[in-house]
Amino acid sequence: MAEAVAPARSETRSLVCSERTGGILTLTLDNPPANALSIALMEALKAALEEARDDAGVRVIVLAHGGKVFSAGHDLKEMTAHRKDADRGRAFFAETMALCASLMQTVVRHPKPVIAAVDGVATAAGCQLVASCDLAVATANARFATPGVNIGLFCSTPMVALSRNIPRKQAMEMLLTGEMIDAGTALSYGLVNRVVAPEELNRGVMQLAETVASKSPLTLKIGKEAFYRQAEMGLAEAYEYTARVMVENMMARDAEEGIGAFIDKREPEWRGE
């Protein structure tokens, strides 16, 4: 994975590095050694995602990581320090969990497809972040776990993303045992889409991102929103809703252009409208 030049280490350094390659925006977590999801990192990542929301030049977002760990989850040292607060940390814990929930929903509700690129360990809220992405590419070095049960803190919020991405029995096994699974197991569970050799991660992710980025940005936005909304509906309601979505989609200029290009056997020219 090509990375932006690392900023100087200081108290004000960026925790999320940004790099553009054509229509693909790569956001790299840079909070070594564990890329812990501290308040500062979550705020930085959420801000970067929000900035990309209305940037017409961004078609696809890749979430990458510096170092050997994608993310080990919440910053437990930061959280533990607040046990000295008058309320034993309750307000800070609530702030942390609310911000994390908001960040994960920002990923899911984002109009641009988001791809996780994982070449290391992703545990707890880090695993949650991978599960929240629309697609994920991992290397043989990748490992995943929801190990909260091992320290007396059940991974309840990671469970939301996990249980919406993999079968219940597999999700419960991860949650109840806290055991690490390898990339091949994650692929068989459906937690990741593809597993590649470590040296092939950049090429594999960029190929996938470029394929997605070549589609109509309006169609991707419509489809991603509809996918997650219908998944929360009953069968009849889902069909009624998606039928309305398809009618509106058919009225879009890009649908007219795409169908016309297919019939004329030519490449479509997307306008995002």
UniProtKB/TrEMBL annotation:
CDD domains: crotonase-like
Gene3D superfamilies noted in UniProt: 2-enoyl-CoA Hydratase, Chain A, domain 1 (3.90.226.10), Lyase 2-enoyl-coa Hydratase, Chain A, domain 2 (1.10.12.10)
InterPro entries from the UniProt entry: ClpP/crotonase-like_dom_sf, Enoyl-CoA_hydra/iso, Enoyl-CoA_hydra_C, Mitochondrial_ECH-domain
Top-level taxon of origin: Bacteria
Record's keyword annotation contains Transit peptide: yes
MF GO annotations: enoyl-CoA hydratase activity
Keywords, sorted A to Z: Fatty acid metabolism, Lipid metabolism, Lyase, Transit peptide
Presence of the UniProt keyword Lyase in the record: yes
Region forming the signal peptide: none
A Pfam cross-reference name: ECH_1
Transmembrane intervals: none
Family: Belongs to the enoyl-CoA hydratase/isomerase family.
Function statement: May play a role in fatty acid biosynthesis and insulin sensitivity.
Protein name, UniProt field: Enoyl-CoA hydratase domain-containing protein 3, mitochondrial
